[in-house]
């Protein structure tokens, strides 16, 4: 799969992204009973509602799924060679779009139709999922916690039983990501209960911090590459 992110995430960035992921899922579930990230949950809810002949509710479960799919396609378009020749920093475009979308949702009134909230949030979440896929040296997800729990648990076992130092590092990294996701979900639920639709501005603000950190990280690498020509290939192209 072609990606617009050419560097793996540091643990700090991965933790912040996971916190955003947990926040968004709690936000849409508390507000409207659907998930922004966990499309598996939405598919299951669609099946349950369909079996109960709650047709309107079943259709509502399909809307965020469709929005998520459109977001994946949009990110893949940004990764196409022809588009990358025109867009020099597709990573910043993708993150900027996610920030703007969530900020726009935060401006909606609390009585806004569910689709006006869940569709853009699911779209923004899919951009994040499609863009950030590697934590240091291992694949991970910033939106789904199940795989991260499996990796953290398996790595902890390998470290305890086999004294594998690489597994120890993975257990620590993925454990931090899982805790960050849970913390994000907790904060998202509390903020949504107290602030309503506006609460998603917290996630948008956190993404601004992440974008600034990534820009700073890229500039540091570019500066280092300029002074070390041999390592110029390590420069971030996104």
Query: Strand percentage, roughly?
Result: under 5%
| Computed Rg | 19 Å
Q: Determine the number of helices (DSSP H or I, runs of at least 4 residues).
A: 9
Write down the overall geometry.
globular
The CATH architecture category equals: Up-down Bundle
Helix proportion: over 70%
H-E string: HHHHHHEEHHH
How many structural domains?
Answer: 1
Q: Reading side by side through the largest sheet, how are the strands ordered?
A: 1-2
- Major sheet size, sense and barrel closure: 2 strands, antiparallel
What's the CATH first level?
Mainly Alpha
Secondary structural class: mainly alpha
Overall pLDDT level: 88
How far apart the termini lie comes to 16 Å
Low-confidence stretches: 231-237
Topology:
Blueprint: H1 11-32, H2 39-51, H3 55-79, H4 81-86, H5 90-106, H6 114-131, E1 134-135, E2 138-139, H7 146-162, H8 165-195, H9 201-227
Antiparallel strand pairs: 1-2
Helix pairs in contact: 1-6, 1-8, 1-9, 2-3, 3-6, 5-6, 5-9, 7-8
Word description of this protein:
This protein has 238 residues and is mainly alpha-helical. It has a single domain (11-234), classed as Growth Hormone, Chain: A. Helix content is 74%, strand content 2%. The chain contains 9 helices and 2 strands. It has a two-stranded antiparallel ribbon with strand order 1-2. The protein starts with 10 loop residues before the first helix and ends in an 11-residue tail after the last helix.
Task: State the main characteristics.
238 residues, mainly alpha, Growth Hormone, Chain: A, two-stranded antiparallel sheet, 9 helices, 2 strands, 74% helix, globular
